[in-house]
Amino acid sequence: MNVDNERYVVGVDFGTLSGRAVVVRVADGAEVGSAVHEYAHRVIEDRLPGAGACLGADWALQSPQDWREVLRHAVPQALAASEVSASQVIGIGTDFTACTVLPATAQGLPLCELPELRDRPHAWPKLWKHHSAQPHADRINALAERRGESWLPRYGGRISSEWEFAKGLQVLEEDPEVYGRAERWIEAADWIVWELTGVESRNLCTAGYKGIHQDGAYPGDDFLAELNPAFAGFTGKLGRELSPLGGLAGRLTARAAGWTGLPEGLAVAVGNVDAHVTAAAADAVRPGQMVAIMGTSTCHVMPSDRLAEVPGMCGVVRDGIVPGLWGYEAGQSGVGDIFAWFVETSVPASYSREAGSRGITVHEYLTELAAAQKVGAHGLVALDWHNGNRSVLVDHDLSGMVVGQTLATRPEDTYRALIEATAFGARVIVEAFEAAGVPVEEFVVAGGLLRNRFLMQIYADVLRRPLSMIGSDQGPALGSAIHAAVAAGAYQDVTAAAAAMGKRIEAAYLPDAGRADAYDRLYAEYRELHDHFADGALLHRLRAIRNEGTA
Questions:
Q1: Which of 221, 300, 375, 432 is most buried, by CB atoms within 10 Å?
Q2: Does residue 316 have a pLDDT over 60?
Q3: Are residues 367 and 302 in the same domain?
């Protein structure tokens, strides 16, 4: 085939610290060029930019300008690296972390970009890991349970502080003026598509998983008014028409074409979530294929042909991953973040110096030491709640712990125990699905942590099942490109596009029976610890004392 006649699509993945663009061949999913642009503001956690207002505990904001800069820099650079002509590109798709949500005007202007609101924290986008809305989520859950709201079981019995309603209620009660000025309360996944097309759209995925949209409706105004009379009508800020995944959201505007270097009028796919598009990238869109996207946190997504109530799941949404199937989501709030925290705060400088002299990272050095141990030799068991618990407890005010430490405990002991804790947390999720009658037929791993072979083997041993691997280092961006191909009409649906363009290595890691038996014993101790502290009483009191001391 003449290269001039080949067709390509662009996928753009907006992550927590950076955005990545990849140029992908429509015929077979070959990735021919990519680029990354780091966010200038990264995560805004302490105070607003420019020595602005101080933020409270558990805040996490972002800047919309950082997202625009990804379009201006990463997309043209990826296109240049691919040596593909812009005229050969037929579509662009995007994905975002979720729930990353922002208040905006009816024209789509973020409120934080209005001069008079720039120094108001609640005018800025709230990143997925903004957890200070936990008290508001607790009230929503308590009221929904008391009223017997039919949607609550679809979310495992509890909605998260990370989601649209909890964050919206927090804005209303802590800054009513900003709430009143917000004509739109919109996921960043939809806002960036608005920037590309000039047309507002709302995707089915974020509405279902993060916006409590079930069976064609949001929670009613009577429910919202019982939370706060001024909260009635909140769903009017969310938009009513939902677009299917893989659908055509609109066409690239002249302004966005100037940013990206792509042709005006290009097909733009409906927005989506980073974890959910990764299922397509791994060609794991059939019932029972659970994809764990492992990075700073882990998100577990799985299509299924059956509807069930899974305790502590983040949600089950019809057509939420691929059309025609129920899409389940669960997750762990901290995984890679926990390992990074330990290296940054708990490893002596001597370890850094020795690792540096050998040209390896501290993570790699600790992995070497930990891998030399037998299962259980460190005598430790940890809880992986350092960033709260997303599934199955849905409580972001929980905190982590390590039990069994002595004066002989070494850094590599604790490091290994933390890795094992995240694997145990994943096993809790898998067991919850299967106990609810939703079988996990294949466990597929994606994300940055794939590079740690030791960690992958621990997961295989703890889960007692083979691990398959995505065949791409850029799963979300590839998944967005696959959705772009569908939106552009190159494939009939996401399933067909995933089969042609997605990549997966089956059974890349196999469990070792001896280690798996040993991990069963440790897992039993983990479950006892997990269940003992699940009510959060002690951990909540400690967090309250901390917050008072840092106020």
A1: 300
A2: yes
A3: no
What CA–CA distance (Å, rounded) separates 171 from 167? 6
Helices 362-371 and 349-357, axial angle in degrees (round to 10): 90
Could you tell me which residues are beta bridge partners of residue 382?
402
Q: Which residues contact 234 (CB under 8 A, 6 or more apart)?
A: 165, 168, 169, 172, 185, 224
- Domain co-membership, 370 together with 470: no
Are 391 and 413 in the same domain? yes
Residue 220 per-residue DSSP state: P
For residue range 72-97, list pLDDT tens digits in order: 999 999 999 999 999 999 999 999 99
Q: How many residues does the chain have?
A: 551
Q: What CATH number does the domain containing 324 carry?
A: 3.30.420.40
441 and 311, same structural domain?
yes
List, in order, residues 6 or more apart from 57 with CB less than 8 Å away.
Answer: 132, 546, 547, 550
Region of residue 108 (left: phi > 0; alpha: psi -120 to 50; beta: else): left
Task: In whole angstroms, give the CA distance from residue 350 to residue 470.
Answer: 36
pTM more than 0.90: yes
Question: Distance from first CA to last CA of the chain, Å, rounded?
Answer: 65
Q: How many helices (H) and strands (E) does the chain have?
A: 18, 20
- pLDDT tens by residue, 534-548: 999 999 999 989 888
Residues contacting 542, CB < 8 A, separation 6+: 399
Beta strands, E only, 40-187: 89-96, 101-104, 184-187
Question: 3-class SS at 9?
Answer: strand
Structural domain boundaries, residue 546: 336-421+513-550
Same domain, 342 and 311: no
Which residues fall within 8 angstroms of residue 124, CB to CB, at 6 or more apart?
44, 48, 61, 62, 63, 102, 110, 111, 112
- Name residue 417's amino acid: A
